[in-house]
Automatic annotation (TrEMBL):
<protein>
    <recommendedName>
        <fullName>DUF3307 domain-containing protein</fullName>
    </recommendedName>
</protein>
<feature type="transmembrane region" description="Helical">
    <location>
        <begin position="118"/>
        <end position="140"/>
    </location>
</feature>
<keyword id="KW-1133">Transmembrane helix</keyword>
<feature type="transmembrane region" description="Helical">
    <location>
        <begin position="211"/>
        <end position="230"/>
    </location>
</feature>
<feature type="transmembrane region" description="Helical">
    <location>
        <begin position="86"/>
        <end position="106"/>
    </location>
</feature>
<dbReference type="InterPro" id="IPR021737">
    <property type="entry name" value="Phage_phiKZ_Orf197"/>
</dbReference>
<feature type="transmembrane region" description="Helical">
    <location>
        <begin position="58"/>
        <end position="77"/>
    </location>
</feature>
<keyword id="KW-0472">Membrane</keyword>
<feature type="transmembrane region" description="Helical">
    <location>
        <begin position="35"/>
        <end position="52"/>
    </location>
</feature>
<dbReference type="Pfam" id="PF11750">
    <property type="entry name" value="DUF3307"/>
</dbReference>
<keyword id="KW-0812">Transmembrane</keyword>
Length: 231
């Protein structure tokens, strides 16, 4: 229960009870910002309230101190370019701190690492991320089309967007299969078709359309096959 209680306190303190004006003030004034210390105080009080045990006062204090160290480090070292990266590092460190407290109270152990089903699912999820992207890229390498100049069509795309779209769709398909909701796979195929192939039809590039279609089918096929093998 301690893990859930502290996570609830963290979500309230970091997202619900922290206005954007506080965040902006902390980023501009850093350790001189009064809102940094008010933010830490709120976290400490929330942790104590959710734990609701006078004997665990030191846990609330520990959460507050660790939160200050993590937030102060982020404010000192983050730049405009690394802001997004530091956000996730910051949240990860907070969660790891809460996990550490939970392990101290023996709420969790590492026995799940010996569980065969857990290891199979972890292996599948890992395979469906970057390894699958690399395999698909290699399989399609000889067919990579050269983009033709389009005067009236927006051809720019986000950096590595295709890679991350592929990873997300494979993980979603794999999840649908594990929970026995195959209709979700059909929904994913239909949604991908509507959003992707309408643009390709406007582009009027048959090679590009075929390239994307083969890549999409390979991506879905890998996810479906992996899901079936794991089950």
């Amino acid at each position: 229960m301690i893990f859930i209680q502290l996570i609830l306190a963290h979500l309230l303190g970091d997202f619900i009870l922290q206005p954007n004006s506080w965040v902006a003030d902390k980023e501009s004034r850093k350790l001189k910002s009064k809102f940094l210390y008010l933010h830490i105080l709120i976290h400490t009080v929330l942790s104590f309230i959710f734990l609701w045990n006078a004997e665990l006062w030191w846990v609330a204090v520990l959460v507050g101190v660790s939160h200050f160290i993590i937030d102060a480090s982020k404010l000192i070292f983050q730049t405009i370019k690394t802001k997004k990266r530091w956000f996730f590092i910051d949240q990860l460190l907070h969660v790891l701190m809460i996990l550490g407290v939970s392990f101290y109270f023996n709420e969790y152990n590492l026995e799940f690492l010996k569980d065969r089903d857990f290891l199979k699912i972890a292996m599948a999820v890992l395979f469906l991320t970057t390894p699958s992207s690399i395999i698909i890229k290699i399989l399609l390498s000889s067919w990579t089309p050269v983009a033709e100049a389009q005067n009236n069509i927006q051809t720019e795309s986000l950096t590595s967007a295709g890679k991350y779209i592929g990873i997300l769709e494979r993980l979603l398909v794999f999840t649908f299969i594990l929970v026995n909701h195959w209709e979700g796979v059909g929904f994913m195929v239909a949604a991908k078709s509507v959003f992707r192939f309408s643009d390709l039809a406007q582009a009027k590039q048959r090679k590009l359309t075929e390239y994307v279609l083969v890549g999409t089918l390979l991506s879905f096929g890998m996810a479906v096959l992996t899901g079936i093998l794991i089950k």
